[in-house]
Design a protein that fits this description.
alpha+beta, Endonuclease I-creI, 3 domains, 4-stranded antiparallel sheet, 15% strand
Length: 308
Amino acid sequence: MPDRDSESGRFQPDTEWTRTELLEQLRACMVEHGRVTRQLVVGDPTNASREAFDREFGTFSNAKAIAVDTPGQLILTDGERSHIDDELRTDDYRKDLLIGLLLGDGHTERRGERAVFRVGMINRRFLKWLADELGDVTASVRLRNTAAESASSARSSGFRPGAKAENYHDFHVLTTVTLPWLGELAERFSGAPKRFPDDLQLTPTRAKMWYVADGGLTSTATHQYRSSCFIKSKNERERPEYLKQLFERFGFGPVFHASHSNVSFSVEDSQDLLQWMGRAPPGFAYKWETESHHRYQELKRRAYETGS
C-alpha cells in the first residue's frame, strides 16, 4: 500500500495505484453509500486522487462504468473472460437469446473492442429465467427504478403530473459481462436508431425473444374472442418489405402497419407463429393465451403484479 502524507493523511498525488485498487475503491464506495460520485470517492483521504483516476481511465465516468455500471467485470481474469467468450461463440441457443432481445428492447454498449448487453423491463421473473439461461454470461439482474421513483420522475418532468406509484412497477435490468463477441454483435447492429443487419435470419428462439420484448396480442371485437399477434419495430419502419420477408421465408404472411410501426399476423398465422416459436418463457404466458380474454387478463395481471 502506498505511503500517506503524515499531516493530511491523504496519499500523495503521484502515488502509483494499480487498476484493481482504483476499481475496488469505487466498489467500496457503492457498498458504503449506495451510490458512487467523484466527490464521495476522492473526498475520502484513504482513496486515490481525481488525477489518479483520470490518468488510469481517461475520465472518472469510465472508471465508474467498469466498476459499478457493469458489475461482474472485476472478478474476471482475461483467461476467464476468454473462456466465457469462446463458449458463447459455440452456443447457438444463448446467442439467439441475445440476438432476439436485441431486435426488441435489448441494447449493447461498446467497451473498446468488447461490449456489454443490457435489457430492462418490469418482468423480473423473465429476467431471472434469462439470467439462468445465459449462465456465466450474466453479470447481474438489478433493480433500476422502484415504482415510486418512476412515478416521481413522471410528475417532476411534467409527463404525468398526477402519476401515482400504484400505477407503476419496479423496473429491473439484466446486464452481461463485457465480451468480444458482444462487441462484434454491437457492430452488426450499429446505427442510431438501431439498424438490423441485412443478412439477418430469424430462428424460433430469436423470434420468441423479439416477441416477448416488443410484441403482443390484439383481439377482435366480435361475438367470439379472437386474437392475433403483432411485433413492433419502430427503428425499421422505413423497411417494411425487409421486416415482412423475415417471416415470409417461413411461410407466414405478415402485414406491415406504418401507423403502429409493427408487423401483424392473421388469427390463423398467429396460432402457427406461437407454435413455431415454442413454449412461452416464464413471465410471458399471457402473450401465448389466445383462447380466453379472461385468462389473458389474469395471466397479465400476475406478471405485472409479481414480476417474480
